[in-house]
Specification:
Blueprint: H1 5-25, H2 33-58, H3 64-88, H4 100-124, H5 133-150, H6 160-184
Length: 188
């Protein structure tokens, strides 16, 4: 079966991640244009995520490949952004960066969710988990945190607390659903 248009968009999003990583890691205050390039790559990935979801739903292009690749693309993008921006730590000019507890929280949640999904897929085969309100709110706030650094919002640190709270809540919610799948073989 050929790749759908939605799958091609998702693959482009995955392929954008190494370019985001390279742009952020090569950033220096003398090469400030790289901050704007990184912002463009990040926005491309975020917007293309919305587009591929729309295309998959509205044009009946939901596939097994898309069900696996889409969340992987999302996790790769946000984990890479948080890790690289923490490492570089100079995007705000005065060395302000994400606190380690936020970076560890974001990465831990995503690693736990990907590991859980892999285990469920191995033991129960195909399953589908629809994004929850908590998951969407978490992604929104995580994206805002990344944008806050790229755009040098002086107040962006106020986003850290709702982001970590939503990250924990959505992580627990998805874990609860995963345990239900393992125990019952279905989602409720």
């Amino acid at each position: 079966m050929a790749l759908t248009f939605a799958n091609k968009i998702t693959i482009c999003r995955i392929l954008a991640v190494p370019f985001l990583i390279a742009t952020v890691l090569y950033y220096t205050p003398q090469k400030d244009y790289l901050r704007w390039v990184a912002l463009g790559i990040f926005l491309f990935a975020v917007i293309s995520d919305a587009i591929d979801g729309y295309v998959a739903r509205c044009y009946r292009q939901r596939t097994k490949a898309g069900a696996i690749l889409d969340p992987v693309a999302d996790k790769l993008l946000l984990i890479s952004a948080f890790l690289c921006l923490y490492k570089v730590g100079t995007f705000l000019g005065d060395g302000i960066r994400f606190p380690i507890w936020l970076v560890v929280g974001v990465i831990s949640r995503d690693v736990i969710l990907l590991s859980g999904a892999t285990i469920i897929r191995l033991f129960h085969g195909d399953f589908e988990v629809e994004p929850t309100v908590w998951g969407k709110a978490t992604a929104f706030f995580q994206i805002l945190c990344v944008l806050g650094i790229f755009l040098r919002w002086s107040w962006f640190n106020v986003l850290w607390y709702p982001t970590i709270v939503l990250t924990v809540i959505s992580g627990v919610d998805y874990i609860r659903k995963g345990i239900k799948i393992i125990n019952n073989g279905n989602i409720a």
